[in-house]
Amino acid sequence: MRDPRLTEFARENRKAMTEPETRMGLALRANRFEGVKFRRQKVIGKFIADFAANEPRIVVEIDGHTHDVDDLHDADRTRYLNERGYHVVRFTNGDVMTNLEGVLTMLSIALAEARQAPMPVFHPPLPTLSPEGERAK
Hints:
CATH architecture: 3-Layer(aba) Sandwich
Shape: globular
Largest sheet: 4 strands, mixed
CATH superfamily: VSR Endonuclease
């Protein structure tokens, strides 16, 4: 079940995108980029991806200055998304603002790799049972 607070936060983020996110969004919207449907601020489990596509499964993160101090959170987020079959590619705000063409070239390469990779199978954790055979709370 999706957390409604996370969904609302993603909706608010879509309305207040940063300039680099807006610029990247314009390049990716309406299946313009290699025919791939990217969604902005997509909720995936307990995280919100800046841009994500289901086919191929890829997440594009635009990292601002806050990501410099939160590498552990980013590593956890990348691991979580990888476990669910997403390839994660990261670009900096500066790259998007000063070299969008290079960013899109790198994204094209990442898309080709994602299309070639086998789809991992995600197995959600099973509920824990008590010794009496009832679900633990």
